[in-house]
Specification:
The protein has eleven helices and 22 strands. The chain has 492 residues and is an alpha+beta fold. A five-stranded parallel sheet has the order 17-3-18-19-22, sandwiched between helices. It has a five-stranded antiparallel sheet with strand order 5-8-15-11-12, with no helix packed on it. Strands 4-16-10-13 form a four-stranded antiparallel sheet, covered by helices on one side. A hairpin with a 2-residue loop joins strand 11 and strand 12. GO terms for molecular function: hydrolase activity.
Length: 492
């Protein structure tokens, strides 16, 4: 048989296989084939995650991991008293760490007594919170109870700008954007949102426009304030509000500078940046100055590790204006698919992230939200991905080690096989990729998250009022650490 015959025979086999696959796909169950609507071209994977995976030496074998889990299992986690308050002991299995949220709960308590006070939350996440999903529902729950109006801090550009309902934004195409996902040494330090933007075109206008959304408590843009960084050159910005134009100067003298657009509430405005190409621009903040405000710092493809690159001095400068009381780290979606169930490398990296948060925002409470359930095809059947539980346990390990609160999103949504139910039920609460929630599911998750946080707050109020009634004098604040569980680098 000559070469041509071999070629045509091979071609015929491939063609028949393709036809057979298309035919079988029509009759086999839908769930065998992932039908994610996500555009893979827009999916980013942060450089630190790729490096960590590449350098993963699997330093702990399976026996060591099993022994570590066995040592923690069932043992009591006893909390040190903080300001005269001590939450009941927990086990590793049911760990929530309300003890480490006491400073946040106290701020809520004071806000409840005085509605003019203010509480602020930074919610860092990945594609799970893209488009303000989940976060907007946490925000609404808090503002419903404690007051507050506004969506908080909003970046200049965003992949999810078109899909976000809590605020509408559009922008010119000539912005230069640097992200902590893929740039290690930015031209100027990253902002609190992990990005820095430059009005990159001297000859053409570089602009951004915002319009209030339709979500409850976000129907106006209150006290719109621009945040920008340090530069050796000055610039200008023209704010167009209706038929009026306000011309203002940018004086980039400090690490972080602010410029108020206008006092009071706006429905929409446009900002044209003029001769400002050297000035780092971070974004705008919208809040009414009292109640609870929640900033959504979501970024597709983020593992959480890039936060460790934040410039602590710049973050403290942001915090001088924004004054955070709780920082939420909600990651895991982009850490599941790397062929390993030993996440010690991720624990180590995220411990650096939490330490950077503590350095950057002194005294702030920290909450870790675990991976949700995710389903994968095994032998033509969708089941919970085998990496979900190991990752969730690793996240719980570093939350405990870092003295942070913890939300086990995997068990909160139902545990093993729950993502399949969320996808298959009518109406569905998750997408056909068996990974991401739709708007209905995101709202349910937001309510569940708020519910756990609020349960801790209600327990805190009981403990606090009991302390006050008994006249207990708060003991000096010690570094709280579980007494009955030794959490070391060797054990995790």
């Amino acid at each position: 048989m000559n070469t041509k015959s071999y070629f045509f025979q091979s071609f015929a086999i491939v063609a028949l296989a393709l036809v057979a696959f298309i035919g079988f796909k029509q009759i086999l169950p839908d769930k065998i084939f992932s039908e994610s609507k996500l555009d893979s071209k827009n999916i980013l994977i942060d450089s630190l995650l790729l490096e960590s995976v590449a350098e993963d030496s699997l330093s702990l074998d399976k026996d060591s991991i099993a022994k570590s889990e066995e040592a923690l299992s069932g043992q009591k986690i006893v909390f040190d008293e903080t300001e005269g308050i001590e939450f009941p002991a927990e086990t590793f299995e049911n760990y929530k760490g309300y003890q480490y949220l006491i400073s946040f709960y106290e701020k809520l308590y004071q806000l409840e007594k005085n509605p003019q006070n203010k509480v602020r939350i930074a919610y860092y996440g990945d594609s799970m919170t893209d488009g303000d999903l989940i976060v907007q529902d946490v925000r609404t729950n808090y503002q419903e109870r404690f007051g507050g109006n506004g969506v908080g801090f909003v970046s200049i550009t965003s992949e999810s700008a078109a899909s976000r309902g809590s605020v509408k934004s559009s922008y010119s195409k000539n912005w230069k954007t640097q992200s902590y996902l893929n740039v290690k040494r930015p031209t100027s330090p990253f902002g609190v949102n992990g990005h820095v933007f430059f009005a990159n075109d001297k000859s053409n206008s570089t602009w951004v426009q915002y319009e209030a959304g339709l979500n409850k408590y976000s129907t106006s843009l209150d006290n719109a304030t621009l945040f920008y960084g340090r530069s050796s050159k000055v610039g200008k910005v023209n704010f167009i509000i209706g038929k009026d134009t306000l011309k203002k100067s940018l004086s980039p003298n400090n690490l972080v500078n602010t410029l108020k657009v206008s006092s009071g509430s706006l429905k929409a405005f446009k900002a044209n940046f003029v001769q400002a190409d050297s000035i780092p621009i971070y974004g705008f903040n919208f809040d009414n100055g009292s109640g609870v405000h929640v900033d959504n710092f979501s970024q597709r493809g983020n593992s959480g590790l890039p936060i460790s690159m934040f410039n602590a001095d710049v973050m403290r400068a942001f915090n001088n204006s924004l004054k955070y009381d709780l920082i939420i780290l909600h990651y895991g979606t982009n850490v599941l698919n790397y062929g390993t169930k030993n996440y010690s490398w991720y624990e180590k990296g995220m411990t650096k992230t939490v330490n950077k948060i503590k350095e950057s925002f002194p005294g702030v409470s920290i909450l870790i939200v675990s991976t949700a359930d995710k389903s994968t095809k095994y032998d033509l059947e969708m089941k919970t991905d085998s990496a979900v539980v190991p990752l969730m346990k690793a996240q719980k390990h570093y939350a405990l080690e870092a003295q942070a609160g913890f939300v086990n999103l995997y068990t909160l949504m139902g545990g093993d096989g729950s993502m399949i139910k969320w996808v298959d039920e009518t109406p569905a609460k998750a997408n056909k990729d068996y990974t991401h929630f739709n708007q209905r599911g995101a709202k349910a998750i937001g309510n569940l998250l708020y519910g756990q946080l609020n349960k801790g707050y209600e327990e805190y109020k009981v403990l606090r009022e009991k302390r006050d009634a008994e006249g207990t004098k708060p003991k000096p604040v010690r570094k709280a650490r579980p007494d009955s569980v030794s959490v070391t680098k060797d054990s995790v």
